[in-house]
Amino acid sequence: MLQFRLFGFPVAVQPFFLITAWLIGPRNDLQATVLWIVSVFIGVMAHELGHAYAGRHFALDPVITLHGFGGMTSWRSNRPLGHAQRIFLSAAGPAVGIVIGLAVLILAPRLLPDAGIMLTRLIHYTVWVNLGWGVLNLAPVLPLDGGHIAASAAEAAFGPRGRSFAVILSLILTGALALWAMWNGQIWMTILAVVLAASNIQSVGWFKPKAGPAPDAGPSDALRSYDLARGLAQGGQHDEALQWLEVAVKSGFSNGAVMDADPAWSVLRNEPRFVDLRRSI
Question: Does residue 231 lie in a domain region?
């Protein structure tokens, strides 16, 4: 894994990110392949930097990871955010890509007449990766940014049950996308739709093992419950993880510093239930 800092943000690039970029791009021409991978790397990095700068504005501590299905910006602090702030945070990444893509698209007519094949390819790749993927990322499908925007808006309107509405909408859209992609022989789009659908199914606890009933609170249960909670969080079982974290806190777990530094909670740090539990310590 490649690790470095960019504009003060820690960045980790997993090998599968580059492998996936190679697989979904042109592979019959070395120059085109290199230009495509460079365009994908810069475009995804710009997207995540949009999230990271927005997070820094809200006094969060951003960490950028580029993985097999794109990028992710997570937070090492647990500052609670309002619905409008969360929407802004989610929209910041696609906004950067769309602005870059539109700027290149507007300038392209002035560049293309005199551009060689290398510059022409670079322009097309840059527009597609930034503008095309930026617009696609605004689709109201979790865990895409558009899905997070829709979920935050739904929670603002309907309370905690709003996220359930967002998940149902995500499942409907990913199901439709999977059917369309299979019908048209779009293998990578089918895989993406299935992965997104599986993520949504997992988030609501369908077709996955249950952690079992919570034990009665007691001092001896605190560390055991906390370890189980963090394991469930890492496995994507967020509802069960928060349930057992609540048991741990009620049982006497009070080490807020451990929770703040624990990467297992990176995805849940801004969830209202997690924020409330952290505040209670």
Answer: yes
Tokens at 252, concatenated:
């006497």
Distances (CA, A) of 185 to 41, 102, 133, 136, 182: 26, 29, 20, 19, 5
Average pLDDT over residues 243-267: 78
Q: Is residue 67 a contact partner of residue 74, using CB atoms and an 8 Å limit?
A: no
Give the Cα separation of 214 and 15 in Å (integer).
39
Instruction: Give the span between the Cα atoms of 53 and 15, in whole angstroms.
Output: 25
Q: Kindly report, residue by residue over 106-118, the tens digit of the pLDDT.
A: 988 776 666 678 8
Contact in structure between 97 and 50 (CB atoms under 8 Å): yes
Task: Please say whether the beta carbons of 147 and 139 come within 8 A.
Answer: yes
Flag whether 267 is in a domain.
Answer: yes
**What integer is the mean pLDDT of 41-64?**
94
pLDDT at 27: 87
Structural domain containing residue 235:
219-276
Classify 212 in phi/psi space as left (phi over 0), alpha (psi -120 to 50) or beta. left
Enter the pTM of the model.
Answer: 0.70
The total number of structural domains that make up the chain: 1
Read off the pLDDT band of 194 (50, 70, 90).
confident
Instruction: Decide: 71 and 56 in contact? Cβ < 8 Å.
Output: no
* Residue 230 within a domain: yes
Domain membership of residue 2 (yes or no) is: no
